[in-house]
Amino acid sequence: MSKRVLGIVWMAGMLAIFGCGRKPKPASSNSDLRGSISISGAWALYPMTVLWAQEFCKIHPAVQIDISAGGAGKGMADCLSGAADLGMLSRAVHPAEIEKGAWPIAVTKDAVVPVASQQNPALEFLLKRGLTRGQCIDIWITGSLKTWGQLLDTPHTEPIHVYTRSDACGAAEIWANYLGKNQEDLQGIGVFGDPGLAEAVRKDPLGIGFNNVNYAYDAASKKPMAGLVVLPLDLNENGRIDPEESFYDTREQLTAAIADGRYPSPPARPLYLVSKGKPAKPEVAAFLRWILQEGQKFVEEAGYVPLAPETIAQELQKLEP
């Protein structure tokens, strides 16, 4: 399947901006911290960063934080160009980016999961058998699996409609890394953004794609998004989903599997906030330090995986004078 771009407009868009501290209330706060922080980048980290910003601004109401989601590539570009103080990154920092001054801090962890429509005609077989890594390679890389019957060894003749991301993003890069390749090697219909890809697959009974955890699951119910199914990975490749591979019913089950390593890495990975060089603005350094300390208590409720204590200590050390 040749790659083409599907134009889906999402309400959040590239300029989904969250601001806090626009009406400072220093009289009711013990904090003398003030200033502004601009953040841009990965959809994967966007919901978590918004929650962190809301909580941080309760303590420091004279700090203004603006956040926009547009993909990890945009976050890195904005960070390195000075258009943003921090870039949200959902992949490893490339050596060339380090050479240009990229300075990353790990802040949490999540994963990318394969998704399909709840209306898929072969759904029963998909959930029982799952997907092997080899099958994912033949769907997104070689394109040799073209029908659902070929994939599942069933009579289904319907074609597989493959979706990928059109924007430079960590989700596609990490999913491709799981398949031994890079984002540009992924085949499929290109869709902008995590919400757009989830919506495209949800509406297409023959569609298959991938999403970051917090766009595959509903934040309120903790179940997969309405109309969307998270496809299990057949990790031992025995043609069925065994009990130890079955942890997709709720977001909590999946994040627990990410945390203890049952869900593989990649497509699990750390998420980063990146600045150009060590942050010089006191408010930026204070925000990062708060995320690594008090901010970690909000991670699990938001559907992410907290950092290990040794990782937190290592990241905090980077912020020392």
Features:
12 helices, 21% strand, eleven-stranded mixed sheet, 321 residues, 32% helix, alpha/beta, 11 strands, disordered N terminus
The proportion of residues forming helix, as a percent range, comes to 25-40%
Count of extended strands = 11
Please indicate the percent range of residues in DSSP E strands (runs of 2 or more): 15-25%
The low-confidence parts are: 1-19, 21-28
**Structural class by SSE content:** alpha/beta
- Count of helices? 12
Q: Ends: how far apart?
A: 52 Å
**Multimerization state:** single chain
Largest sheet: 11 strands, mixed
Radius of gyration: 20 Å
Envelope shape: elongated
SSE pattern, N- to C-terminal: EEEHEHEHEHHHEHEHEHEHEHH
* Mean pLDDT score: 92
Q: Could you write a compact summary of the structure shown?
A:
The chain has 321 residues and is an alpha/beta fold. It has helices spanning 46-59, 72-81, 95-99, 123-129, 133-140, 148-152, 170-178, 194-203, 213-216, 251-259, 282-292, 309-318, and strands spanning 4-6, 18-20, 35-41, 63-69, 86-89, 102-117, 161-165, 189-191, 207-212, 228-230, 268-276.
